[in-house]
Input
Amino acid sequence: MVKVAASGTYDAGEGSRLPAGEVHAWEPGQNQTACGVPLRRAGLGRFPHVDFSDTDPVTGGSADAVRWVCPKCVAATTPRRQRTGRRWERTDPRP
Ligand SMILES: [Zn+2]
Output
């Protein structure tokens, strides 16, 4: 399951820590986000207890303090449901 790396932390009380600010997808064990940003250099905190899908501002349950979700990470972690089988190709071949 893909977890979360974020630029900030939101204290939800009772020791519960939620991601805040800018959010990226992150897999535990990796030292960079799904879109290739190094966690340490970018100052991103790790949230191994928060699923990336929960940070969606519309549907997520952990998105109260999320201000921005990285579109590259969304694309990298979204199943290919939007690709309807046919690969994108140039209509005119290169010379
Ligand atoms: Zn990202």
Notes: The chain is about 10% helix and 30% strand. The pocket of zinc ion is lined by residues 24, 33-35, 37, 70, 72-73 (CB under 6 Å). Strands lie at 3-13, 16-26, 45-47, 66-69. Residues 3-79 form one domain.
